[in-house]
Structures are given as C-alpha cells and as structure tokens.
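Contributing new complexes? Match this layout with manganese (II) ion.
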Amino acid sequence: MKKFFHSISELVKENPIFTFFVVVNFLDAVLVRLTTTGTCGVRAFFFELGTVLLFGSFGLRMKNKEQKIYYVFMTIVFLWCVVPNAIYYNFYNSFVSVSFIATSVFVADVKDAVVDIAIRPGDLLYLLVIPAIIFVVKKFKDKEENKQGFKSSLVLSLVIIGIGSALPPYYSFSRLFKFWNRVSVVNNFGVYIYQFDDIFQSLTPTINNFFGYDKALSDTKKYYEENTNTKVINEYTGIFEGKNVIAIHAESLMSFLLDMEFNGKKVAPNISKMASEGIYFNNFYAEVGVGTSSDTEFTYATGLMPSNNGTVFVNYYNNKFMTMQSLLHDKGYYVFSMHGNDGDFWNRRLMHASMGYDNFYAKDSFEIDEVYGLGLSDKSFFRQVVPKIGEIKEEMGEPFYGTLITLTNHTPWREAAEYSDFDLTQYVEVDGETVQSTYLADSIIGKYIMSVNYMDEAIGEFINDMDAAGLLENTVVIIYGDHDARAGYNQTNYLYNYDPVTGRVRTEEDPEYVEFNEYDYEIMKRVPFIIWSKDSVKNVVIDKPMGMIDVMPTLGNMLNINNKYSLGRDIMSVSKEDAIVVLNDASFITDKIYYSARNGEAYTISTGIIPDDYISTRREYVDKIIEISNNIIFYDLLKYLD
Ligand code: GP9
Ligand code: MN
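Output block (do not edit by hand):
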C-alpha cells in the first residue's frame, strides 16, 4: 500500500501534464454540475474523478508526442461533454443528447432564444482549458511510457469508482440504464458518464433492432393484455361525434396567464372567455421531452409519452402509430394541419403524413406578409387560414379536423413591443409619490406576457372571422398550450418577488417575500386545455391533474373514437385521487404531491394523509408508462400488435 501511494505521488511530481489533465477536467465536471443542477452530491465527485483518472492512466501507456496529443484530444472530448451541456441546461433544464443533434437543425431557427436565454459568458470560460493544456504540453518535455504509473492510476481510478458505486442512492443505477432522467444521471454519475451513456443510448435504437426486441414485445403485449384500453361510457361519450374540430396548438401558452391582468386589463381576455364558456381543464400539463412542440403533437395524437432518445418526429417518423388523425380519417373526416413555418421544421412534412393528415399547409401555402420571431405572424396566419377552411368545407365537405399551429409566441419574444402594446407599467408608491416602473416590460418574462396578449388577440380575431364566415356552426374549437414558456426560474420569480421600488428581487428574509421555489416553478408549468363550441356552452372546469397523454382518450370519447394503444386515460372517468400527470423525466404530479424523480423528493401540493405506498405505487406506474411508450417507439411495435 505504501509503495502504491508512493508511486502515485511520484507520478504526480514526474508527469505534470498527466496531473494537469486530471485536475482541470475533474474541476470542469464539478463546475458544470454545480452551475446547472446545483447538486453537490458526494457520489458524483467519485465518478467524475474516477473517470478522468481512468482516461488519464491510458495516456501513461503512450510516450512522447503521442501521449501529449492524447491528453489534448481527451481534454477536447471532455469539453464537448461540458460546454454544450452548460448552455443546453440553461434553455431546457436538462442535458443534451447526441440524438438531439439530429434535431439540432431546428435549433438554428430558434438560435435567438438560445443566445438570449441560454448562453452565459461564464459557460464559455471552459474553453480556456484548450489553450491552457496546449501551453502545458509545449512547456514540459516529452515523457517515456510509465507502466508503473499506468497501473497505479488505473487501480486508483477503479477504487474511486468503486467507492462511488457503494454510495446511495442505489436506484440511480436503474436511471443509468433506463436513462429517462438525464438530470438524475448527471447528479449521481457526473457529466462525463452521462454523456458516454447518452451516446450508447442514442445508438440503442439501431442496436435495439438486434437486441432487446423480443423482451420489449412480450412486455408490451403483456401490458395491453392486463390493461385493455376499452372506452368507458360516461356523460361525455359522443357529445361531439361528427362535429368539425379545429385544434389550436398555442405555442408556449401557459395557464397562469388566463388569470392575470395589469392595470385592469386581462392578458388573455379572449382565451379566458372561451375557457369560462367551454370545458376548461385548468390542472393540465404538457409532457414534453427534448422534442417540445413536436412531442406535444405526438402525445396529443397518440396518448403515448414522447421518446426518451431523440424525438419521434425526427428519429421515428417512419414508425406505425395509431393517431387521432388516422382514426378520424377512417370515420370520414378530412384531416389537415396548417403552420406558418417551414414544413421541414421538426420534420413535420414527413411526420404529419405518417400521422394520417390528408394535407399539411406549411409556409409555402401562405403569403409571408408579416413576420415576427420565427416566421409568419399569428394574426396574418389566422387571417389566411379562415378562407382556406372555407374552401376545405366547400371542396371536401364535412366533417373536417384541422390542427392550427401558432408561432409568434415562441421564445425569446424579443420583438414583443413591436407587435403588442399591452401596458405592463407598474405604479408604485415611493415616499408618498406614485412613480412608474417599467421593469416588467423590459424583462424576458414581461415580453412573454406581451406576446401572449398578442396571441390572444389573434385567436379572438380568428374566432370572429370564423363566425362571420359561418364556419363555427357544428364546430368544436380546441386550444391547448404546447409546453411551458421556458422563461426560466429566475425570470418567472420576478413575477412574484421583484420589488419595483428597490429594483431588487426579494429573498426569504424580506417580509413581503412570496414563496416560490423550484417545485413551485415546476407546478406552475400548467398549460390550458380548452374545448369550446359556439352552440354548446358548457361552463365546466375540470381541476383533476391531467396530462397530454390523456387528451386522446378524453377527446376521443367525446368524438366516439377509441385508440386502444393510448396509455393515457379518459379523465372524465378517473377520480381526482387517481388522476396523475406522468412527466417525461419520470417525475409526476397528483392532487397531493409533485414528485421529483431527479431528487427523489415529494413536494406537498395539498394537505391530507399520504399512505405509505402512495409514492412507490405511482412511481412504478409512471416507470411502466414511460417504458411501454418507449418500447413502442424504439421497436416500432404497433406493427406487430393486433
Ligand atoms: C416551430 C414551432 C416551435 O415550427 O412549432 O417549435 P418548438 O421550438 O416550440 O418545439
Ligand atoms: Mn412549442
């Protein structure tokens, strides 16, 4: 043992390049974890140090230039694990996947958002490591192969990884293999192991075709045998059968805006009016992964969870899925989608055809006469949509089902003041005088609020134009938010704790501090789901926790169609106690708690007794839903199920 540690200390003294490589790459891993999730788990330290030592030891089997090139190359590889994740986490609160690179062609279109919200100058400091290690390898003379040093550092790295493995939480290994909780993997194993695992997982769909298929098929068949998704008859069964349906996919619309007003004016008067007149699901959540809008389109249409590796729209668009669109088409509906953006964004041109749409009207079907943010403005889009629906009704008859995907309210809302004059001025008392504060209008969250007001106006004009054209007769209009705005915790906290008088954000020490923690931020990510029709006012509010996977069964029951592969449930036939929102990282929300799969913590939403097995039974349920969904996606199993 003494000899072992002596050889390590000799190694550190004799080979400064090896020492620099280990120290700097270990510090990078620790820093990126602390500056993203903020978790200071001891366990991850062992894995981060052990990983760097392990790769560092291989360099000792090389000599001279080869050894130096190896250490520079591996430092660049480790930086590729650190810098993209530091930036990506600011935008998505998760960690990047190499399979996302396949979809990153779309990031170019949202680069403003990435630049505005995601890239912090500090994240780019990591890049200084490259000139630093080049300086170090130039400064110190070449080294011969060091077999003893290799053995000692290899053994030390394995001992350190072994200690890390012996530390709780032991369930984290399942997350390493199941991999739907990226944050948990980084928190427990560090960013290097996370990224190597991600590469392996991203290759899995290709590998899967050779391995794991049989087990996935038998597990999935067994699941559906035990959970046959027969339609439950209730008071909503068939209430909209045969009606036309127009579904508005409202970009980044969140529910809290429907109750918000400034200076006596509602932020979203039209949408909130439709919510009050129709059926309003006010405890509703998107369940997106990295696929954001496209994940919502997929989950809404199939009742399956999004893919945990890549996105369905890009990586699995050729697979067979049972969708609302295909079921309605089979019932005689003409099914179309319309969107003012490039038809290849999110690979929609191919995926919409695969989902069963008869036609997809993309950017090239519209006159691009007014542009804000990502493309055609919502007001111009809707103005042009109305006559198109009129032509469809003329030429294709009824019933028709149309998905209208909005665009203007997409992050980062930089131009909001150009298309919205919604007044966010705050009037505050300072030393007995009333002064104006415009902090909100200048902030990202303020621009978001202004942008939502614009989208609300656009939807209000659309409803009026549809009514004037006689297109609301026998028609149901649906509005759903496709995911939360991604404005970030700090920006959202402004709404609760920015003090316009002092210009500071209140902390817990302030008497007027409003409790708003990371869990409150997750819980407020509700998006509206509204079913409205001109001729059948409903005035119903459903406050049961509901997820996007429940839309297919719930709306399907109203349209009298049944998707037997949906993993969601018709919320009208589920009790509030049993209702559950399955989130894509295996966290979940019920009427009692928000359970964070990242930290294994439960945050109380309402009082009341929580039975012993309350969390474990729901965690098993959630894991199973995610597993079966991913089986179907990865292995294209619906082709083989009857
Ligand atoms: C792109 C629009 C926005 O066409 O649907 O997509 P998102 O960035 O929200 O996934
Ligand atoms: Mn979106």
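Reviewers usually confirm one structural detail per submission. For this one: Residues 2-211 form one domain.
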